[in-house]
Design goal:
The mean pLDDT is 80. The protein has one helix spanning 31-35, and strands at residues 12-17, 20-25, 40-45. The protein has a domain at 12-45. By secondary structure, the protein is mostly beta strands. The N and C termini lie far apart (40 Å). The protein has a three-stranded antiparallel β-sheet, with no helix packed on it.
């Protein structure tokens, strides 16, 4: 069975402020995410803004659509 995913605007705003926002796609609105046991979110940073370091107990894949990205990882 072939699955088709249509790109839609994120349906939930987790945070929005002067430096940007974090938006997510809910599993209830996009059943394919639930079926594949995935989560999807979008971090939008305005120029000169930064995201605070945080811990999460799962893997992440990040794509930079515009600008640059610098990351430090500690092992």
């Amino acid at each position: 069975m072939e699955k088709k995913m249509v790109v839609e605007k994120a349906d939930q705003t987790v945070f929005e402020g002067d430096s940007g926002g974090y938006y997510v796609w809910s599993n209830s609105k996009i059943p394919l995410l639930s079926e594949l046991k995935l989560g999807a979110g979008k971090l939008l940073l305005h120029p000169l803004a930064f995201a605070l370091p945080h811990y999460i107990d799962s893997n992440k894949i990040c794509f930079v659509l515009e600008g640059t990205f610098t990351s430090c990882t500690h092992e």
